[in-house]
Amino acid sequence: MTAGHFDALVVGAGPAGSIAATVLARGGARVALVDKAKFPRDKACGDLVGPRGVQVLTDLGIPIRGAIAVGDMNVVGPTTRRVRLPCFPGRTYPGYALAVPRVDFDAELHEVAVEAGAEAFIDRAAEPLWGDDGLSGFSLSTGTELRADIIIGADGASSRVATAADLVDRTRVLWGFALRAYVDEHVDLPHIVLWERTPWRAFPGYGWMFPGPDGRANLGLGIGTLSSREGAATVARDLPAFVRTLRGLGLLGSAAPMRTLGGWLKLGMVGTNPARGRVLLVGDAAGLVNPLQGEGISQAMTSGRAAAEAALADPARAARGYRAYLANTYAPYHSTTAPLHRALLPRPRVVSGVARVVTAPTVGALVAPAWSIFWNDLLDGAQPTVPRAVAALAARIGRIATAGGQMRHWFTATLGEGSYRSADTTRRCPDALDHGSA
Questions:
Q1: Do 271 and 296 sit in the same domain of this protein?
Q2: 83 domain-assigned
Q3: If you average pLDDT over residues 342-367, what whole number do you get?
Q4: Within its chain, how far is the Cα of 438 from the centroid?
Q5: Which of 100, 127, 335, 386 would be 67's cystine partner, CB 3.0–4.6 Å?
């Protein structure tokens, strides 16, 4: 059964897909928005929308009902020492994040996309459809055929769109896995816990406990697994021990975690070509997850908007415009931090030592402001302050240290010379890019 031809087919209606569909539909495009689940539906997540994501919502005039603003964050080191990371307002983003359960957040964004004019399909993208110039759409599991001029893959780390379009080199991908649970506990500030299962053997990731708008807290563990996808069992096994650690730190009382849910992450863009021909990948499908702290919602929304704007500006050259945007916006950070992630993960003693140093009383207080900016990828658009200058210096040192590595070469070969661009200049939107041939 054929449902007709669309200007754009968006596969996946999480934050990346719904934002892309909203921008496209508001721009006059006929959009098909496909998701296998009926909304509302839950997703494994820390439920924090970072400052850049908050700015996207503001720019698009999308209020999120019930969300609460959160600012500073506490980092707890292996010796239980704590450092407070300040959340500074930037020139291009606010000085706060939003806490909102994904089950509510995703449903609201999906509703906004449909109200903008996107046509929603509750179905699974099953078989790819091919045309003379490559992938042209998908046959859904019910048999409906959807074809489009632009296909946006917003279908997560294991993207069906990316696989069909042959845009992933799985030998290069940096995988992560996160397990989340809710607990009836009030938390004032987000907490990141640099956890050790045994002394001087850092957990290959970190734990968290974040506030929620309904009086519940969101706690969980995130792990990096490099090119392996066998870490899920490790996280599930270690979660009870982490919960005991939270109780020992005084962050959690006697309430028991509930509603455990896990999910895979694709970190640092490595191994995924984000655009070719008519296919653009956004969010987790493109690997747009911070390799240092696992944030992905802000990147999902900014990339969804950028892909949509590139498609609206010049559909025939959308891939080139979108790749240039990513090269200028995310590649400078990811091409530095992804190699750092890969280098540190197999060295738990080194990670433990670093965690002890940066959470030591004097050192922690000195580095916390710059750490907050660099770790959260907030250098672009930050106010011209001393912490920003220190963060810019750290970014510059990182770029120099990773300049000759294989990952940097991959970024340059995939995205072009923009991946060498300084990470502290102004980010540009796709409609300001030089659109050449796709």
A1: yes
A2: no
A3: 96
A4: 25
A5: 100
- Among 242, 266, 290, the domain-final residue is 266
Global pTM exceeds 0.85? yes
| H/E stretch holding 19 | helix 15-26
At 438, which amino acid appears? Answer: A
Largest CA distance in the chain: 67
Q: Distance (Å, rounded) from C-alpha 379 to C-alpha 39?
A: 35
Q: Are 19 and 101 in the same domain?
A: yes
Residues 235 and 352 occupy one common structural domain: no
- Predicted pLDDT at 422: 44
Q: How far apart are CA 16 and CA 54, in angstroms?
A: 14
Give the residue from 266, 287, 314 where a domain finishes. Answer: 266
Rounded CA-CA distance 112/115 in Å is 5
Q: What is the rounded average pLDDT for all residues in the chain?
A: 93
162 and 280 Cβ atoms separated by less than 8 Å: no
Which runs of consecutive H residues, i.e. helices, occur in 314-347? 318-329, 331-344
> Cβ(29)–Cβ(119) under 8 Å?
no
pLDDT at 3: 72
Instruction: Report the number of distinct structural domains present in the chain.
Output: 3
Pair (254, 321) in one structural domain: no
Contact (CB, 8 A) for 146 and 137: yes
Examine the domain organization and report whether 98 and 227 are in the same domain.
Answer: no
Give per-residue pLDDT as tens, 226-273. Answer: 999 988 999 999 999 999 999 999 999 999 999 899 999 999 999 999
255 and 380 inside one domain? no
- Are the beta carbons of 222 and 205 closer than 8 angstroms? yes
Distance CA 174, CA 159 (A): 15
Q: What is the mean pLDDT of residues 314-326?
A: 97
Q: Which domain holds residue 186?
A: 174-266
CATH number of the domain that 18 lies in? 3.50.50.60
Residue 426 pLDDT: 41
Do 353 and 222 fall into the same domain?
Answer: no
Q: Indicate whether 196 pLDDT > 90.
A: yes
Is residue 156 within 8 Å of residue 287, measured between CB atoms? no
Q: Are residues 119 and 6 in the same domain?
A: yes
Domain for residue 404, yes or no?
yes
For the chain, the distance separating the N- and C-terminal CA atoms, rounded to the nearest angstrom, is 31
Rounded CA-CA distance 223/205 in Å is 4
Whether 87 maps to a domain, the answer reads: no
Q: Please name the residue that has the structure tokens 């496909």.
A: 34
Whole-Å CA distances, 287 to 179, 199, 417 = 18, 32, 19
DSSP state of 299: H
CATH number at residue 202: 3.30.9.10
Give the Å distances, CA to CA, from 129 to 145, 147, 300: 8, 8, 26
